[in-house]
Amino acid sequence: MKSERQNLKRRQANKVEALVARFAKLALNLVFLLQCLGCQREGAVICAGCVGGLKRLERPYCDRCFQPNSGHICAVCLEHPLAVDTFWAPVLFEGPIREAVHRLKYRAQRAAAQLGQLMAESTAGSVASVDVAAPVPLHSSRLQRRRYNQSLL
C-alpha cells in the first residue's frame, strides 16, 4: 500500500514536471521574437528576402524522388521503386529550410510550421496534377517523444 502511494506520487510529480517544462518552452517562444534562420532579422522563421534567395529545384532531377541527377528516373528509384508515383519539393533541402525543418521536427519549435504556407504558395501553378496531399504518418514512438505530429501543423 505504501509503495503504491509512492508510485502514485512519483507519477504525479513527473506529470507536473512535464507540464512545467512544456509551459516554459511555450513562454519562451512567446517572449522571444522569431528570427530569420537566413539573415537573423526579427519577424519570421524565414523572411521574405531569404525566401526569394532559396535555391529552387531545377532540372535535371529524378522524376520520382526529385533528387538532383542526370534526369528522368535515378538509379536508386529504378532499383528500389517507391510506393507512390512522385514527391515534390519547391526548394533544395539545405540552408535555412533544412534548419527550419529540423527545428520543427526535433526541437518542437512550432513556429517553423510556417514552412507549410511557403510550400502552399510555391505549388501554385507548379504541380501539374495532385490527387492527394497528405501528412506523412509518424511512428507512435516518435509521436510519444515529440508530443505532436509536425506534419499535421
What this model shows, in words?
- Helix content is 45%, strand content 0%.
- By secondary structure, the protein is mostly helical.
- The N and C termini lie far apart (44 Å).
- The model has no long low-confidence stretch (mean pLDDT 77).
The percent range for helix content is 40-55%
Mean pLDDT: 77
C-alpha termini separation: 44 Å
Listing every helix as H and every strand as E from the N terminus to the C terminus, the arrangement reads HHHHHH
Class derived from helix and strand content: mainly alpha
User: How many extended strands?
Assistant: 0
Quaternary structure state of the chains depicted: single chain
Number of helical runs?
6
Overall shape: flat
Radius of gyration: 21 Å
| Residue runs with pLDDT of under 50 for 5 or more positions | none
Could you give a short account of the major beta sheet? none
Share in β-strands: under 5%
Quickly list its features.
6 helices; mainly alpha; 153 residues; 0% strand; flat
